[in-house]
Design brief:
Layout lengths: L19 H9 L5 E5 L1 H13 L4 H4 L4 H10 L1 E6 L7 E9 L9 E3 L3 H5 L6 E8 L6 E9 L11
Antiparallel strand pairs: 1-6, 2-3, 3-4, 3-5, 5-6
Length: 157
């Protein structure tokens, strides 16, 4: 029998930027979390040419209106400045996708909802996107799988 820890009520979304220690602590609070992908290196590859002037802000600050509305209504404000405009803080938006979610698949959720949903659904993927509501910067920060489905057997005989 697999013993699962209770989900902490202080559960938050992944902090953006490169705060690895806080990210590891918040990830550890989700009992069913697996297959975590951090997109920090990809973000660096986009931000570096932007800061050096080789890429224009218009090329990377291109959030769709739906994403901006999701950030306004479902997003979680952060303390991190937008790398696109460096004037406003980014907002983390959490999306869930999965066959077991049926009509909820593809929906933006409040940061604490995916952890609660993990008890009710088999397996679904969570994406965290950082968005600047000022200049329309957006970038995928992290993705991971949640749910009460079977544990991954990667590396086991």
């Amino acid at each position: 029998m697999i013993r699962r820890a209770a989900i902490s009520p202080q559960l938050t979304t992944l902090p953006s930027r490169w705060d690895d220690s806080a990210k590891r602590r918040s990830l550890a609070l989700m009992w069913s979390q697996r297959r975590v992908v951090d997109y920090g290196l990809v973000k660096r590859a986009v931000v570096e040419p932007l800061r050096s002037g080789r890429t224009s802000p218009g090329a990377v600050c291109d959030a769709q209106p739906y994403l901006l509305r999701a950030a306004r209504h479902f997003g979680e404000p952060t303390e991190h400045l937008c790398p696109g405009c460096e004037r406003e803080n980014v907002t983390n938006v959490t999306y869930v996708y999965g066959d077991s979610l049926k009509s909820q698949s593809g929906a933006a959720k409040i940061a604490s909802q995916p952890a609660e949903m993990a008890h009710d659904y088999d397996e679904f993927r969570v994406y965290v996107v950082e968005v600047c509501q000022g200049c329309s910067w957006n970038h995928l920060t992290a993705s991971f799988v949640l749910g009460n489905g079977p544990p991954d057997l990667v590396g086991r005989p």
